[in-house]
């Protein structure tokens, strides 16, 4: 609660621009869902028309749009609510939103798809994969991702971000440059250190012929997705408090450092970062236009006098 009060005080002291719940964020969340549905439909029922299949395949960006919207919405809710024990209540709300249906999906998919070897589980599905999936830790082990529940990599990233979010926002507050600094540091650690080490480790563990599987599992890992959430948090506070030239400079440094690291290591994550930054800019622009329009409508609303004159 102290962290929420401090965030509210910072907003008041800075004379921040009001930033309320935006219908645009809800629309973007809906578009993200449509995009995810489109890519899964295209994968299961390809039309064999290149332009159509390509357009549907681009629906994968819906997951990343949802990450940005999720981060911004959580920051909004965290700064607006004033309640006792906010971290515990935050965890309860988020857990109940995802866990029940996800747990229901585990036995259903096991019954439908079985436990034999597959692309996402070269050695088959055993107790380890099921336990990791049920505890939302499947994003940390390659053959647990997308093996028990198809497409569950985004759930792993989202739930892990839910776990760390209260600690991050309590520590950083509205200092958006700290979110960006952490995003840059984690991106560089992943590209330069973790991904090369983990790729060599798991390629040897699963054996020849599974390099593409390992590479993809590391690409969709939480460490590679966390910078997206952190940028989303930074964008929220930039929209609320106003953008500055320093924001542009930090993003430019982020791009430059990522490009250099990508060239030096061959991690092939630079393009993914650029797509995410473009998506984040589009989300921020949409939310900003919505907030500006709401402010204009509010300012244009006439004030009605309801007082009575005595005769």
Q: Topology, please?
A:
Elements lengths: L1 H12 L9 H22 L5 H8 L3 H20 L5 H28 L13 H8 L18 H20 L3 H31 L4 H9 L2 H20 L3 H21 L4 H31 L11
Helix pairs in contact: 2-4, 2-12, 4-10, 4-12, 5-7, 7-10, 8-9, 8-10, 8-11, 10-12
Question: Which properties best describe this structure?
Answer:
311 residues, 12 helices, disordered C terminus
Describe the structure.
By secondary structure, the chain is mainly alpha-helical. The protein has helices at 2-13, 23-44, 50-57, 61-80, 86-113, 127-134, 153-172, 176-206, 211-219, 222-241, 245-265, 270-300. Helix 7 (153-172) crosses helix 10. Mean pLDDT is 87; it is low at 11-17 and 303-311.
Percentage of residues assigned to helices: over 70%
The end-to-end span amounts to: 52 Å
Assess the beta-strand content as a share of residues.
under 5%
List low-confidence stretches: 11-17, 303-311
Helix segment tally: 12
Global outline: globular
Write the element-wise H/E pattern from the N-terminal end onward. HHHHHHHHHHHH
Oligomer: single chain
Class by alpha and beta content: mainly alpha
The biggest beta sheet is recorded as: none
């Amino acid at each position: 609660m102290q962290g929420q009060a401090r965030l509210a005080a910072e907003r008041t002291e800075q004379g921040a621009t009001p930033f309320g719940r935006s219908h645009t964020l809800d629309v973007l969340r809906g578009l993200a869902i449509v995009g995810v549905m489109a890519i899964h439909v295209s994968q299961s029922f390809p039309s064999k028309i290149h332009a159509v299949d390509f357009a549907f395949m681009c629906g994968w960006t819906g997951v990343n749009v949802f990450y940005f919207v999720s981060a911004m919405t959580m920051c909004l809710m965290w700064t607006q609510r004033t309640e006792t024990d906010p971290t515990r209540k935050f965890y309860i709300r988020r857990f109940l939103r995802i866990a029940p249906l996800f747990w229901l999906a585990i036995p259903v998919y096991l019954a439908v798809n079985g436990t034999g070897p597959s692309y996402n589980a070269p050695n088959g599905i055993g107790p380890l994969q099921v336990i990791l999936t049920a505890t939302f830790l499947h994003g940390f082990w390659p053959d647990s991702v997308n093996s028990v529940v198809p497409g569950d990599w985004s759930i792993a990233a989202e739930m892990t971000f839910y776990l760390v979010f209260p600690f991050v926002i309590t520590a950083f507050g509205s200092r958006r440059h700290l979110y960006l600094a952490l995003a840059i540091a984690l991106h560089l650690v992943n590209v330069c250190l973790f991904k090369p080490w983990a790729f060599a480790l798991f390629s040897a563990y699963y054996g020849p012929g599974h390099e593409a599987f390992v590479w993809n599992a590391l690409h969709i890992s939480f460490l590679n997705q966390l910078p997206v959430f952190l940028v989303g948090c930074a964008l929220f506070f930039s929209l609320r408090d106003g953008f500055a030239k320093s924001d542009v400079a930090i993003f430019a440094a982020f791009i430059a450092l990522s490009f250099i690291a990508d060239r030096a290591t061959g991690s092939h994550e630079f393009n993914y970062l650029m797509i995410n930054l473009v998506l984040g800019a589009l989300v921020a622009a949409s939310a900003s236009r919505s907030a500006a329009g709401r402010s204009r409508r509010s300012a244009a609303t006439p004030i009605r006098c309801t007082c009575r004159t005595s005769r």
